[in-house]
Amino acid sequence: MTETWDPFGTLRDALWIGGAQWAGKSTVARILARRHGITAYHYDYHDARAHNDRRIASGQSLPGSPDDLWVHASPQDMAASTLAGFPARFEWALDDLRALVSGRPILAEGWGLRPELVAPLIDSPRRMVVMVPTPEFREHQVRVLPRAGAIGAEVSDPARGQRNRLERDRLVAEDAVRNAHALGIRVIEIDGNRDAEAVADLVTDHFSPYLG
Record's SUPFAM superfamilies (predicted)? Predict the structure, then answer.
């Protein structure tokens, strides 16, 4: 269960962008931060750094070899493992957010900010939006973004590892969409027909009651 303790009221006033990998969440959050003077919290940055220390301190087992992680596991098992790990990782993100105090809302973005985890914290579904790429846009991102086009680890079968990763990402994205729909949280599909500024316009309109 999500710990709703909120000593400075930061979580109560936060805005949230969840969803899938490669949908442009971080870019949109940075645009909104510049436009509206709000503070953007990038989940992926913290999760890959300080949260790893917490993971070790908590006694959680670390992943096996890169081949075990990316090549030998099925995408279904990879997705199930990723989803099972999100709740604990979400609590670490909440600890980061609780320490932030601002005269403006905090905008938190990242794929680990799952609709079912955020929902108990918000007073309205309008405080969250879920961004997911269409299959075509995901393929585009794989072609143009170096970090999307390779898994970033040395494995025995890079092509299979990348296929597994992309299928895992698709399954994790589908889970986010299902939960968002069930909770009445808006889903924005990113198909590449709008540039980042135009997508930011959509998100700004969605969050407009809280931006002033």
Answer: P-loop containing nucleoside triphosphate hydrolases
Q: How far apart are CA 24 and CA 116, in angstroms?
A: 21
Q: Which of 72, 79, 112, 90 is nearest to 3 (CA)?
A: 90
Taking the alpha carbons at both ends of the chain, their separation in whole angstroms is 32
Angle at 25 between CA 138 and CA 190, to 5 degrees: 40
Distances (CA, A) of 105 to 6, 174, 199: 14, 28, 19
Tokens of 33: 């931060």
In this structure, what DSSP letter does residue 152 have? S
Among candidate residues 103, 86, 124, the one with its CA nearest the CA of residue 10: 103
The contacts of residue 202 (CB under 8 Å, 6+ apart) are 188, 194
Compute the average pLDDT of residues 36-44: 93
Q: How confident is the model at residue 51 (pLDDT cuts 50, 70, 90)?
A: confident
Q: What is the dihedral of CA 169, 112, 140, 177, to 10 degrees?
A: 70
Cα–Cα distance, 91 to 51 (Å, whole number): 10
Looking at residue 60, its pLDDT comes to 67
Report domain extents, the chain. 10-211
Looking at every residue in the chain, the average pLDDT score rounds to: 91
- How confident is the model over 13-25, as a mean pLDDT? 95
C-alpha to C-alpha distance for 87 and 105, rounded to whole angstroms: 23
CATH architecture, range 10-211 = 3-Layer(aba) Sandwich (3.40)
At residue 62, the pLDDT reads: 60
